[in-house]
Structure formats: structure tokens, C-alpha cells
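Exam review. A common question shows you a sequence with its C-alpha cells and asks you to describe the fold in words. Practice with the pair below. Do the first one on your own.
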Amino acid sequence: PGRSSLPRWPAAVALLAVGALYAVLSDSLTLGPRAFVPALVAVLLVPLMTAHLRGSHRLARGLGFGVIGLVTVALVVSGFLLVSSALNRGTSAPALLRDAALLWVINVVTFAVWYWEIDGGGPAQRRGEGHVSEDFLFPQMNLGGDVARSWTPGFLDYLFLAFNTSTAFSPTDTAFLSRPAKLLMMVQALLSLVILAVLVSRAINALAAAG
């Protein structure tokens, strides 16, 4: 029987949201105009969604990796610039805290899209009888029987996974099985740790100054 692919619109909306959040970061945390990354993401999503609707899933997945890779590079650069801003005593605390919070959210959503895209060969491969993921082991997959065979992770499951990784810095209820998944988890946890370290250090400095 034919296999219908999973819809790509949740990840597309997530990437547009990341672009919108990136557009409101401080100028000091972006390379070039703030609108460059959001505009490029929006432009690249057009051929991606077109390829998906036409059934060109390999092309859509390649474009998807390109968009996520672009957003990830921008996130990493902004993370380093955030640390640099934190070391600059002239940076205002409210602006720094806002930027750190925005980058933390961008980190969660970006890696949710990464996990959604790599798992089981991509969204076009995850719907079908007998599909087994070699990247993640969700709790539902351990239930056995018809539940495990019929269950397919949705974007919310990957968002939950990314949220847990950014807060716990480690796997929680879902196991990371493949090496690409483990590498992505380490990068996400490291970025989250750096961002939260900036938040905590600024909070401690503010308390010390108030005292």
C-alpha cells in the first residue's frame, strides 16, 4: 500500500517563528542586518514546501537541512556574541537578559526541527507499517502491540524532547540512539548551558551591585 508522508507545515511554522525571534535580537548579536536570516529562511521555505507538495521528498529534505543548518550557524554565532556582550560591562542588563531568553527559545525550537528532520530518515519515511526509528526511542515504542506499531511521533514530541534537553542537559524519557542524534544533543545542551550561564552570571552581578 502507498505511504502518505507527514505534513511539513509544523516545522515550517517553527522555522518562521525562529526567524521572527532572531529579528528582534539586539544588533550586537547578529552578523549583518537582523532581517537577513529571517528573510533567507522565508525565501528558502518556499521551494522546500513546493518540493514537498509535489512529492519530491529527497529535494525537500535537502532544502530542509540547508535551512536548519543556516539557522544553527546563526544561533551558534549569536551565542558567542552573547558571551562577548556579557563580558562587556557597558551592556545593559535588561537587554542582555532579553537576548539570552530569546536565544534559549531559538535553541529549543531549532533543535526540535533537527530531531524531527533526522529521525527515521525524515518525515516522509516515518508513516507506514513496520517503521522503526534508529535515532530515538520514545516511551510509546516500548509499549508493544498495536500501540507501538501504529504510533508515529509528531512535531510536538520533538519539541518536548528539545525542551527537556535544554533544561536537563541530558536525555529524559526519550533515548538518543544514533550518533547524529547524540551529536545534536551535545551541541544543543552546550548552547543551552552557555546561555543559562550568562543569565545566572548577570543575575549574580546585579545582586552584588544592589548589595
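Now try the second one, then compare your answer with the model answer below.
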Amino acid sequence: MTVPDAKRLKDLELENSRLKKLLAESLLDIGALKVVTRGKGESGSGAGGQEMQAQTDISERRACQLFRLSRSVLCHQPRTSVQNTELQAQLVELAQERRRFGYRRLHFLLRRAGVQVNHKRIYRLYRAAGLMVKRRRRRHGIAVERERLSLPSAPNQVWSMDFVFDALSTGRRIKCLTVVDDFTKESVGILVEHGISGFRVTRALDEMARFRGYPKAIRTDQGPEFTGKALDQWAYQRDIKLKLIQPGKPTQNAFIESFNGKFRDECLNEHWFCSLAEARIRIVAWRRDYNEHRPHSAIGNLTPAEFAASWRTRQQQLKQEKLISTPGPTN
């Protein structure tokens, strides 16, 4: 072998070793990036770089280069603020009282209590405390044609009612008749019994209408208690129109279905009733809290009672303005 050949062979070996090193580094980089994409690491964050270092042999400098991140940012330890700690404690306390509330409703409750904080900080502390509400899985059923609901323009125009079922700790079933005013979103009443017939439904409606008057129409499904002679005769005597939805289409009665979902999540699923009397007491307390303290997003994050009171105040003002603007009789 000549001297030029030996020199050429040496250069080839150096090039080969350099290529092997580059290949090893690229494979290490790919493995480190796969660790982050499989996990919950976020691109461009210090958490991803720390996770990459913990599970692979990559250096801190190389991890920062892959993330295009400064090493000072990766090693930075954030300081906990006293204000954030106290605010997070308030969030945890509220979330324990109202477990199905998200960060938006908790933010409104804090604002009502006088805490002026940006909603983005609430969301950040909400996630850090692990208070995220698990989304319920949607049922995959047959698609049905929906009927558009028209929102009433005044209270007592349309009520919606339906049944919700639960059981006591003894295993005995209880039946709840829920009635909602579609305009104010108020819970007109909740009747709790072991069994409710059509005649008992009419008696309960008379009791509910004693203080607020009768509605012009009531929307129900086609259950036997709602399609029987007792409710039909009662509605005819009081000139109330019964609106029956189509069979198997609960979306046509969406207002009461939405209320029943909140009723199940925040009351029935949160308590284990030992007797019918205890169930009535807890349900009455929840209904009062729903009407007087729970903000409702469909009515401007007011409570149903506040929305109904503001509507009555506006109507009185309009009547007074109309009386003032109407000229009196001339002689």
C-alpha cells in the first residue's frame, strides 16, 4: 500500500466515525422527542425538557437546543405567591361544595364574593389544583330530527315537567316530578314520592300555582301520567294547553332535560338518602340554592330568582312610563 492510499484510508475512517457519531446523536434526539410526544410534555416548556432528561441519556444542553429553550428557563424555579395560594384555597373550597362547577362558574362565584381576578389566573390555578371536571361520555344513538324550541317572552307562559328516578339506601325507588319555568329558568317545584300518578301530578301543579299562578302551557313527554285523563281534564278546566313532544325525542323538551341533568349531578348523585323524609329535605334545600344562589349562563349568569325579580322591576317601570306618557282626559 502506498502512502497516498494509507492517507486516503485514514480519511475514510475518520469520516466514517464522524458519520456514526452524527447518526447516534440523531437517533438519541429522535428517541428523546418521542418520549415527550408520548407523554404530556408541552413543546417549548421546561417540563418537557426535564422529562426528556429523566427518561433518556440526553444532556441538558442538548435538550435545551431541541426545545430552543434557554438553560436558565429550564432551571428556573417559580416562586409561589401568597395571593395565589389563598386564591387556590378558595377555589378548592368552592369546588368541594359544587363539584360539577367548572372554572367559569367558580370565577363568577368569586367575583360575587368581591374577588377581582382575571379568569385566566383562575383557570391556571384551577388546573394546577387538579379540579378539572371529567366530561361525561356522550351516548351514541340514532340521530333524530330536532324541533326548535321557542323561548317564551314572559314568566308563566310555558312550564316544562318530567320525572327523575332515584333509589334510597334500602333499595326502594323514589320518583321526582320536576317543573321548570322556561323563561326564568326557575325550579317551580320538585315533588318527591315513592309513586306519582296522574291525579297526584294535578294536585302538585295546583300547589305550585297557588303563589305564582297557572301557566298558559305545559310541555311534557308522552308518559302515562301526562297522557291520562286526569291531567287532560285538569288542563281543560283551567284553559291550559298541553304540549306533548314526539315519542323518543327528549331534545324537544330540552329545558327540563337540562335542569334534570343538573339535578342529578349536583343533588341526587352527591347524596345517599336513607329515607323519603331525608330525600325531601335535601332536595328542597338544593332547589332553594338553585333558584337563589346558582348562576345560570343562559340568563346572563344571574340566578333564576334575580332574573325574575329584574324582569318584574322592568315591567313595573314600563307601566309607570306608559302611564306618565299617556295624556289624561280633557274637559
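Model answer, second protein: Residues 40-44, 139-147 have pLDDT under 50 and may be disordered. The beta strands are 158-167, 173-181, 187-193, 217-220, 241-244. Full marks require stating both points clearly.
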